[in-house]
Specification:
- The protein is mainly α.
- It is 37% helix and 6% strand.
- The protein contains 24 helices and 13 strands.
- The strands form six sheets. It has a three-stranded antiparallel β-sheet with strand order 11-12-13.
- Strand 11 and strand 12 form a beta hairpin.
- Helix 7 crosses helix 11 and helix 14 packs across helix 17.
- Bound molecules: heme B/C.
């Protein structure tokens, strides 16, 4: 058979001398700034072109037909990967769940909204074993609908169809997920170099960073238990942590696991190490992007190997029923091993348990099983209480499962206004961060009179700009939450974040409140804040000798505290905001890396990030009003001083704090102290790519370009969450 491309990603393969190969900068200097994350999925990767409008394409299809075709496919078994029990439903649910389940609320990254399961590493994670086949089964439908339905939408729709086809009533479905065309480079999946191997991700028993899985290569937790130890209590701890990081509470967690495992089976007919070929990304070329080729027996149905665990959870694995809690709670379970050697649990003799049909022949029977993770739902006291309640009250279980599934699969799609199709539920849900619609429009004249009111209010350019930035920059492109719309900067938790300088913010908000009261028409505080920011930028440009108009689009609503999930919003609090020179104390990550991380969440390009930092500094937008990075004598003038000064080699810099976080500059010749700066400032002179951009803006011919580019980037940030404008 053909030679594997590089089975071991770190040590394998021959030396290649083709273009793009060889030792890279990242190999020489592993701490290199990851600017690559600001240029992902550009038009150069996207075959659809810039004019493609997915919403229009999706809305033009007959959704009912699409659904019927997916439903049909579920019960038409294919020879090349026959369906267990003649029904692909359970398989599709697992695929959809694994597509959505990578979401983590910490940074909003991961999740179902991009179709990233098509690409490595996800397509090759051991936890996604054999899902290559699930996607291939959908190809005929995908082929038929082409650009009109994205993979990302289809994977979730298939999960919904599967649930419905087996008798479960789902809460709803929305389309609107646009496919990406290359794997994401920004998502931190962990540092380990081995699937399911030694965990480097626990530091002081805490899961590192925003990670949402207990192991490299898993969506959540090891089914056999922590580190493969069949310890249900330990498993419960891992489940709480990882499902919590997906923003699921205990009740939702129990419902999801029990609901999911009401269907289907686990596959562990024999030892995977002995019979499975490489995962898709490491497989031979003739396997055509599939992997895990199984040489045991027929390789399919009852000979299939996926997780290594073997058996079904319930006696009727293709039917929605209340058997999961029935068997979990009514039988006694003992530890055993699958034919593949995996730890799992089986009913004791004395339980006289019912059996499940064999996947390939329903006239034959096989013992039920539970994974260690399932046993957590019985042995953890909190979970047990919920399990018992759901066992008694099937309706409640159905309701919680339906809503949790909907949340799981739609959570990273942004506001409801982005949801497409006829099955979008009417009900507004708290996790969707609802914002009331506005009932006013602002004419040009209205905007002028509002600007006059703000202008006469005594707020400084710094205050105007800082507040608008604080409001808009909570946006994260990862799950399309946050942003200026909703005016949530008035509310907990945002109003109390250190980065927002709560005392000063309260004063500014009071002034805006007065303006709102004195204004004859209607206007939201959310709009006032952004308008104030625009005004501040215009004034600063005027101070620098440029008359510009900062485009303003009114129409933001003010959300109420009741419409705001404080816990869930607390994840939007920045650890650092290099644009305002803010860094939470005690972080082990450097501020320039966090600046790029934030720029990525704000969907900024490298030039946009650069021009914004340079502009915000001279506007005096630092969160605490500090002078760091304010390389100008004329604060409040939109000049390119930040760039011209940082590039000026008349000045020399040295660290002024032990942790190399602060620096002081002085005149090389005289030793006279000049400026102070943070790493988020000096990086624009130090990093050669950023320096190259700084040179553009710092040049003598760039004053006007600087102002125009700053305004464009500023407006982009102010409108990031204005899906109604796009
Ligand atoms: Fe699951 C399957 C684990 C959750 C749904 N899972 C399965 C398996 C395992 C598991 C191991 C087997 C695989 C094979 O094939 O072999 N899960 C698990 C864990 C968890 C879970 C550990 C956490 C705790 N699931 C879940 C959820 C859901 C699910 C949440 C939904 C909702 N799963 C599922 C299904 C299945 C599974 C449906 C079946 C598939 C077939 O049949 O194919």
């Amino acid at each position: 058979s053909g030679k594997s491309e590089s089975k071991c990603p770190f040590f394998g393969g021959e030396q290649k001398v083709t273009a793009g190969s060889g030792t890279r900068n990242r190999d020489w200097w592993p701490n290199e700034l990851k600017l690559n994350i600001l240029r992902q999925n550009t038009v150069k990767s996207n075959p659809m072109g810039e004019d493609f409008n997915y919403a229009e394409a999706f809305n033009s299809i007959d959704f009912k037909n699409l659904k019927n075709e997916v439903m049909e496919l579920l019960t038409h078994s294919q020879d090349w990967w026959p369906a267990d029990y003649g029904h692909y439903g359970p398989f599709m649910i697992r695929m959809a769940w694994h597509s959505a389940g990578t979401y983590r609320v910490g940074d909003g990254r991961g999740g179902a909204s991009t179709g990233n399961q098509r690409f490595a590493p996800l397509n090759s994670w051991p936890d996604n074993g054999n899902l290559d086949k699930a996607r291939l089964l959908l190809w005929p439908v995908k082929k038929k609908y082409g650009k009109h339905v994205s993979w990302a939408d289809l994977l979730i729709l298939a999960g919904n169809c599967a649930l419905e086809s087996m008798g479960f009533e789902t809460f709803g479905f929305a389309g609107g997920r646009e496919d990406i065309w290359e794997p994401e480079q920004d998502i931190y999946w962990g540092s380990e170099r081995e699937w399911l191997g030694n965990q480097e991700r626990y530091k002081n028993e805490e899961l590192e960073g925003q990670l949402g899985a207990a192991h490299m290569g898993l969506i959540y937790v090891n089914p056999e238990g922590p580190n493969g130890k069949p310890d249900p209590h330990g498993s419960a701890i891992d489940i709480k942590e990882t499902f919590g990081r997906m923003a699921m509470n205990d009740e939702e967690t129990v419902a999801l696991i029990a609901g999911g495992h009401t269907f289907g089976k686990a596959h562990g007919a024999a030892n995977p190490d002995e019979y499975l070929s490489a995962e898709p990304a490491g497989a031979t070329i003739e396997e055509m992007s599939t992997g895990w080729k199984n040489s045991f027996g027929t390789g399919v149905l009852d000979d299939a190997i996926t997780s290594g665990i073997e058996g079904a959870w319930t006696p009727n694995p293709t039917q929605w029923d209340h058997d999961y809690f029935d068997v979990l709670l009514n039988y006694d379970w003992e530890l055993t091993q699958s034919p593949a050697g995996a730890h799992q649990w089986q009913p004791t003799e004395a339980s006289q348990a019912r059996m499940a049909p064999r996947a390939g022949d329903s006239s034959k029977k096989q013992s039920l099983m539970m994974t260690t993770a399932d046993m957590a739902l019985k042995l953890d006291p909190t979970y047990l209480e919920i399990s018992k309640r759901f066992h008694k009250d099937h309706k409640a279980f159905e309701e919680v499962f339906a809503r949790a599934w909907y949340k799981l699969t739609h959570r990273d799609m942004g506001p409801v206004s982005r949801y497409l199709g006829p099955e979008v539920p009417k009900e507004e849900l708290l996790w969707q961060d609802p914002i009331p619609a506005v009932n006013y429009t602002l004419s040009k004249a209205d905007v002028v009179s509002l600007k006059n009111l703000i202008s006469n209010s005594g707020l400084s350019i710094s205050q105007l700009v800082r507040t608008a930035w604080a409001s808009a920059s909570t946006y994260r492109g990862s799950d399309m939450r946050g942003g200026a719309n909703g005016g949530r900067i008035r509310l907990a938790p945002q109003k109390d974040w250190e980065v927002n300088n709560p005392k000063e913010l309260a004063k500014v908000l009071e002034v805006y409140g007065d303006i709102q009261k004195n204004y004859k028409g209607s206007v939201s505080i959310a709009d006032l804040i952004v308008l104030g920011g625009s005004l501040g930028v215009e004034e600063a440009a005027k101070n620098a000798g440029y008359i510009v108009e900062v485009p303003f689009s009114g129409g933001r609503g003010d959300a109420s505290q009741e419409q705001t999930d404080v816990d869930s919003f607390s994840y939007l609090e920045p650890q650092a905001d290099g644009f305002r020179n803010y860094l939470k104390p005690g972080l082990s990550v450097s501020s320039e890396d966090l600046l790029v991380d934030k720029a990525n969440l704000l969907t900024l390009t490298v030039p946009e990030m650069t021009v914004l930092v340079g502009g915000l500094r001279v506007l005096g937008a630092n969160y605490d009003g500090s002078k760091h990075g304010v390389f100008t004598e004329k604060v409040g003038h939109l000049t390119n001083d930040f760039f011209s000064n940082i590039l000026d080699f008349r000045y020399t810099w040295k660290a002024s704090s032990d942790d190399d976080a602060l620096f002081s500059g002085s005149e090389r010749k005289t030793g006279m102290a000049t400026f102070t700066g943070t790493r988020a400032d000096l990086i624009f002179g130090s990093n050669t790519e950023l320096r190259a951009i700084a040179e553009v803006y710092g040049a003598d011919d760039a004053h006007e370009k600087f102002v125009n580019d700053f305004v464009a980037a500023w407006v982009k940030v102010m409108n990031l969450d204005r899906f109604d404008l796009k």
